Amino acid sequence: MHGSFAQQIALTTYGNAFLAGMPGVASETFYPSNDTFTYCESVRFVDRTPDKSWEQATAYTDDPLRWFERFADAGVSRLRLVCGQVNGERLSRWFIETTKADASDLWDCRWDVGDQARPDQRIWRVAYGRVTADQPPFPALKIDATKLKDRFAAILVAIGEFARRHRLDMFAKPFASALAALNGKRSDWKGYDLAPSSFLPPYAEDLLAAAQWAWVFGGMGSWNDMSFEGDDFTEYAQLTQELYAAVNEAVIVATNATAERIVTRAFRREVSMTLQFFPFDSMVTLPVDIPAVAISPHRGRLPADGRGGDSLARQQGRTD
């Protein structure tokens, strides 16, 4: 999973944990300690309206924890991970949506290279920009979590068989690990720290772990960087699109499950209640418009709006 996408997920889940009043979401446990910030020199937040460039954006706050604090003070009730288009764009991208009452804001992200000679390798200067403010909540697509899990498992079985048939063990193994994770079995490899411990319901933990294992998309050497012919290509293309959709849906279902944990501070002052998760077999309403993976008979590639994948490198202990 690409580091920028992982960071958006972590900001969403940890932000919801902060708003829910979960103990331990503090500087020493999240920023800059979380592994999605490992190579970041800075992570700042700005107001960036359509008529302003990133360079012209107005400063909002200078780190993620202060971002969380400002949301709490402003009455933001929850964060969600969403995918879609804004300001007339043609391609879908990932955003963090912050909601309060009947309105929401969308936050985009940008990663710029800073000092590449830094000995600690923290070379990335990350900015999150609020690109829309006080708009109606993002359109939602209903995803049945139970059916998603079953569909995800079936795709992993089919694509794993395809990989083994073509002797692609470097992919067959993570597909098998993803299937095991989907069934609640964990391996030594943990992937990114995408959510606070015990903040996700078990089904969401399974989906998120499986998604990290199955994220094999990216550039050179990735799953969608291979070439097949004839019926093999047809099967490969179909399985790849199905896997990409299932992985993205799993990420958004699991990430946005943390929004269900929210009880605002103001409400907690008025009434005491036990936090409940929605049932595993419920119909979950989630904002998502997932783009397709672009592949060709000669070479696979992600679309311009896609997120590259470094999951194999991380599974093999590489972070370069």
Task: Describe this entry's structure for a reader.
There is one protein chain. The chain is of the alpha+beta class. The chain has two domains: 3-139; 143-315, no CATH class. Helix content is 36%, strand content 18%. The strands form two sheets. A six-stranded mixed β-sheet has the order 2-1-6-5-4-3. β4 (93-100) and β5 form a beta hairpin. The longest helix is centred in the C-terminal third of the chain and has 28 residues, at 230-257.
Number of helices: 8
Give the strand order of the largest sheet, numbering strands 1, 2, ... along the chain: 2-1-6-5-4-3
| Whole-number count of domains | 2
Low-confidence runs of at least 5 consecutive residues: 263-320
What portion of residues belong to β-strands? 15-25%
Order of helices and strands: HEEHEEEEEHHHHHEH
First-to-last CA distance: 14 Å
Number of strands: 8
Main β sheet profile = 6 strands, mixed
Descriptors:
single chain, 6-stranded mixed sheet, globular, disordered C terminus, alpha+beta, 2 domains
